[in-house]
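Section 5.1 Outputs to date
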Amino acid sequence: MPEVLGELFAGIIFGPYALGTAIQIYGIPLVEFNEILNAFAEIGAIVILFIAGLEMSFARFKAAGIPSFIVGSAGVVVPFFLGYWVYAQLGFPFASAIMVGAALTATSIAITVRALDELGKTDLMESRITINAAVIDDILGLAVLSIVVSIVAAGITPKPLEIFSTLIKVMITWLLLLSVVTYFLPQIINRAAMWKVKGSVEGTAIALCFGLAALVSGLGFSPIVGAFAAGMAVAESRAIKRVREFTNSVALIFSPIFFGVMGAVVNLNRFTLNTVIMSGVLILIALVSKVLGCGLPATLYFKDTWRGLRVGVGMISRGEVGIIIAGIGLTAGVLTGDIYNEIIGMIIVTTLLTPLLLKRVFKEE
């Protein structure tokens, strides 16, 4: 199983709503939320997205092709509007419904790639489209997050057409920003590599990560969008191997803290019958929206139902970005503890289901 699930479960078990309060050291609870813990978790989110960017250079993004772009775009639009519409119809506030829609958008690239690799199917055309679409899916998902955060902060209720036009504007702005940083940042890293000073490349890379996160935050985007863009830009440098090794070491500290904190926020005492039912509804939305949203365009492209279904199933799993979006919603007071629990439950179930379903659809040769 993906290790992120272990970190989530560790947070749930040892969090303040479970053993974290029962176990005390010199009268102090094992785990308690404070500014220091939250700061470490926020650093973890930035580092996680920086590493995700390192795994997908701008060149790879451009090489994804039109089919991948169509599949990835549909994999964001359909879950977002379907999740928003269902929760709005059920009577949830606009801000909560739109945040649920945002949490449903991003596919977990790591889980999909690992599942396809274990099946030995990464070289197939449908697998390549799935992986590239997941890249685009995450980029658009982060753009949606920025829009949602801005809308929630402004306290307005725009029409669907306004949301769509804003999404296009944000995507264009993000692509322009990415084009600029992709030109300059690799040159800065390459210069740092010429200094022949221990830690010059690593220090410069992490400074660019947090610097761009701060800059993008000042422009009204989520800081993790800046970290993701910085990672994609640095991936174009000649010192990418050194940067990747260093950031993976940093992530060994901060990544488990982030996912542990996200798990610790889950209050098992709040899992009522209604919460379980709503979790089931959210899981159903998550499955249907990706299989239809991504599977139908892929089926039209391949003119083959099974190959299209493989793409749709490969896009089901939600992961790190979904957890980050849910965490932002909870911190901002937009999501209640019950809705947060439902989203975490949906992420865990889709993560477990994806490898099993992929194995099934790839058996149907």
